[in-house]
Design brief:
Blueprint: H1 2-61, H2 66-81, H3 83-112, H4 114-119, H5 127-143, H6 154-158
């Protein structure tokens, strides 16, 4: 009996919560739509206001871009006459040409499959020498153990 009443109460609370959330969402949707319309109207008004300000400024000042154009052209001419800039551009063009030629040659080698033959080196492993070297290292380490100077163990410190 207790489980049925608990489940019934839980169902009633869930139903009430659903209805309440449904009602609040509809009201909230209306509020959000009104707020969005208000923001759009404000932004339109601001855009028109700043457009008016810009037009007034341009009419009052009537900017002449000729000095700016002359300045840019003189800077361009100065850079063109600069020897270091000319050398850098020439060097860049030469390096680009060399790189283009190398890439083309590599592409041709890949097409001819000559590159694959050049990359195939024979790897020879001599088991006797490899194990002999490992044995020599192990023998050396056993004859010359690693000495620890710091930190010393408590036993070593007392002796």
């Amino acid at each position: 009996m207790m489980k049925k009443s608990f489940l019934l109460g839980l169902g009633a609370v869930a139903g009430a919560t659903f209805l309440l959330s449904k009602k609040l969402t509809e009201e909230r949707k209306e509020q959000i739509a009104l707020k969005l319309d208000e923001v759009l109207l404000d932004s339109r008004e601001k855009a028109l206001k700043y457009d008016r300000y810009l037009r007034d400024f341009l009419q009052a000042n009537s900017p002449d871009f000729a000095p700016l154009k002359e300045r840019v052209l003189s800077t361009k001419e100065d850079l063109a006459e600069n020897e270091k800039m000319t050398d850098a551009i020439t060097s860049l063009k030469q390096a680009t040409t060399e790189l283009r030629e190398r890439l083309k040659a590599a592409k041709d080698e890949l097409a001819d499959e000559t590159l694959d033959e050049n990359l195939q080196d024979d790897i020879i492993i001599d088991g006797r020498s490899a194990f002999g070297e490992a044995k020599d290292v192990a023998d050396f380490e056993s004859e010359h153990p690693t000495e620890v100077f710091y930190p010393k163990d408590d036993k070593q410190a007392t002796e």
